[in-house]
Automatic annotation (TrEMBL):
Domain CheR-type methyltransferase, chain residue ranges per copy: 1-275
Organism per entry: Sulfurospirillum deleyianum (strain ATCC 51133 / DSM 6946 / 5175)
A Pfam family of this chain: CheR_N
Name by which UniProt lists this protein: protein-glutamate O-methyltransferase
Xref: CDD domains: AdoMet_MTases
GO BP annotations, alphabetical order: methylation
Catalytic activities: L-glutamyl-[protein] + S-adenosyl-L-methionine = [protein]-L-glutamate 5-O-methyl ester + S-adenosyl-L-homocysteine
Length: 275
């Protein structure tokens, strides 16, 4: 099969579909990135053009192809305990939070990717919660991609993925298993039982499913940079509604609410509290 070239008209169709269903706003300069990421999939399906792929995508009622598209377009780059300053802030604030909430915490990892973020949250709480009390803690971890969610639920990570994780955490919360030419690290059941994984689309998802919960902390890091301003605004408004009084929103260090604060005030770079 000859090399596939994404034509401008085909790109515009895919561009509109991705924006409507995933929320990612792709500028016109992203045409070559989309071509590179989708070409292999188009060939694997035996299709002769990106236009044929678009027709296949729209006609698919099973949701399987949308899942492939989401995984290929989304950037699932993550790591354990990323954004170190946020963890330091949370460490200093945790005693006050526990006192205010009387030991009950609800936390949402809103774009959990392959699971490093929610497992980091669970490890952090295991480390810094006082040992002499019992707590009611639930962590919701969601992502648009069921592919990465399966990886997260499995909780198995390579040496490379754990390279920057402190040895203490590896020994305390993982079991090591040799596998072929590498080592794999399996998350302990004690962490897994703290987390509920669910597939959820931040742009098109039914937020009524979350209305019964008032979160104390929402992590949504390095996601809004892919959305345009109207989508960012709607998302921030939804987070505001779902956060409890004085709840926290943690975003990526490359992001800022700036003109979208709408009831939040900045506590530190990339950390916002609901008024």
């Amino acid at each position: 099969m000859q090399r596939l070239v994404l034509k401008r008209k085909e790109f515009m169709l895919l561009q509109a579909f991705i924006y409507e269903h995933i929320g990612i706003s792709l500028g016109d300069h992203k045409i070559y990135l989309v071509q590179a990421r989708l070409a292999k999939r188009v060939k694997a399906l035996g299709l002769e053009s990106f236009g044929a792929y678009y027709d296949f995508l729209v006609a698919d009622q099973s949701g399987v192809e949308f899942e492939y598209l989401s995984s290929l377009i989304s950037t699932n780059v993550t790591s354990f305990f990323r954004e170190a300053k946020q963890w330091e802030y949370l460490k200093s604030y945790l005693p006050t939070l526990l006192e205010k909430k009387e030991g009950k915490l609800r936390i949402w990892s809103a774009a959990c990717s392959s699971g490093e973020e929610p497992y980091s949250i669970a490890m952090f709480l295991k480390e810094y919660l006082p040992r002499d009390k019992t707590y009611d803690i639930k962590i919701l971890a969601t992502d648009v991609s069921s592919k990465v969610l399966k990886m997260a639920m499995r909780g198995v990570y390579t040496s490379k993925a754990c390279a920057n994780l402190d040895t203490h955490y590896l020994k305390s919360y993982f079991s090591e298993h040799p596998h072929e030419s590498q080592r794999l690290y399996h998350v302990s059941p004690s962490l897994k039982q703290m987390i509920v994984f669910r597939e959820f689309n931040l742009v098109t998802g039914d937020y009524r499913l979350l209305e019964s919960v008032r979160f104390d902390i929402i992590f949504c890091r390095n996601v809004m940079i892919y959305f345009d301003k109207p989508t960012q605004n709607r998302l921030v408004e939804r987070f505001y509604t779902l956060l409890g009084k004085e709840g926290y929103l943690f975003i990526g260090s490359s992001e800022a609410l700036t003109d979208m604060k709408k009831g939040f005030y900045s506590k530190s770079a990339s950390i916002y509290q609901k008024v």
